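Lay summary. Proteins are chains of building blocks that fold into shapes, and those shapes determine what they do. In this project we predict the shape from the chain. Here is one chain we studied, written as its sequence of building blocks.
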Amino acid sequence: MKQRTLFLGLVIAGSLALTGCTAGGTAANTPSSDTGVGGTPAQGGTVFVLQNADFSHLDPAQGFDGGVNNFYRLIYRTLTTQGAGEGAEGTEIVPDLAVSLGEHNEDATVWTYTLKDDIFFEDGTPITSKDVKFGVERSLDPSISIGSPYAKIVLDIPEGYEGYYTSGPLDSIETPDDKTIVFHLNQPYADFDAVVGQAPFTPFPADAGVTATSIDQQPIASGPYRVTEYERGSTLVLERNEHWDADTDEVRTAAPDSFEWTFGLDGATIDERMIAGQGDDRNAIAGSVQASSIARIQTPEIQARTVQGLQGCTTYMAMNTTKPGMDNPLVRQAINVAMDKQAVKDATGGSQLADIATTILPPTVVGRQDFDLYGTDDQTGDPAKAKEMLAEAGYPDGFSFVLDIRNQPKMQAQAEAVQQALAKAGITVEFNLIDTSTYYEVIGTLSQQHDAAITGWCPDWPTGATFLPPLFEGSQIFEKGNSNIAQLNDPAVNERMAEIRLMTDVDEANAAWGALDEQIMELAPQVPMLYEKTVMVLGSNIAGAYSHAGFSGGTDYVSIGLKSVE
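And here is the predicted shape, written in a compact code that computers can read:
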């Protein structure tokens, strides 16, 4: 049986008006996509990328955010991947190294894939099923297993298995021949085609001496580009992988000859260079502009090279339910009531760069329900009511906690808005600043977590199945690579998640995830704050650019190039 996986109902705002939009109750309420920038790329040339921080990891077993997953597609391939294109076209799961989507047994617990012909690593070695198996096995090593968690969650893994380097091969992944790979799961999982498109399913040569640390220093490419120069925190250069065969790849256009990243630039410098668009910056792309630059990009010339979109994510403050005080639901509810979300929105850039969030699930997730359990007038918070709740919880003189934040201007502005809002309710917030490149790794390590953290989550495919379990299921609390920052382990929530996974009706399951959102928010393990947007100014010679719904609204690397090659 073959299953076609399509992210139904997901539409991204490829050209949102700068006045912003109102988040609706379901995916059907989100704005529709429009055309990107620049037409069809020419072959050749170099695309320059200006970036504030380096990627978290070059090893796909370790990186796990929209930006690095977008980058991985340039150098790595997986059995499946997300499509290339705007809106739903970009979030359809399509074959990549596999000839088709998977074939599965009746209850979707055994999945079989067949590899294409003429697929190679950067040294010309053919990619086999054993290489795919090895890539998954090494990703389960506890020392590097901090990336996408789905392999750990759904594969049939024996208790005590610690990855290839410690425990050896995994029996639940079979390779009957060089072209066939069979996965045995521990549960029915209808979305497994999306799972094998996750970065930990990247193949690596099983017999090439790959270690737990070597890939992070020197990747082995299976995609159209290979890393030829890398100075962490400074520069990264990709050049063509001559052994990549375009005939085997329906997703990547690979028009440029090379890509060159510059890291460590502050946001103001990046905006200034992109707006001016001089020299090599005509051939450059960057992330979303800062709030202070919005007014400067309203001219027709700059608007013509601006791409905008919803990130499809929720920015929130997670509260560690294992910490004193935060282990009391009434305290967490009081913090929700005290939060001035309008101030956080203003600190982010106002309606042009964010909408206020009231639910965990963002508007792009199918089945999302619209509710607001802790709403206040104009979303500015109710400190008086919050004080009453804190007194009832046993904190009549207030409450204090430490907040983990990124050492980045926008995130610090958000944190300061949180600090000022909660101070009105007698809540003292102290900051713990963490480097942007290592932020997710630090807050995902239980021993390094503090009382709360400002972070965000984007669906790996837009259903509640990739949003609520990673954030709130007790079985998904890991010592390292933990995304359940709240460390919520509520029996009723865990039981409901298990029930939803057994639902065979997709619409019923999607509705159930939407309802579970409200059930979880009654426990208040987080404060949903914003649904953020991206506004990206591109170089005037960039072609084929659009906001990709699957990568936090960023410019899709695999489709861009130059209008003309000089």
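What the prediction tells us: The chain has two domains: 35-259+538-562, 314-533.
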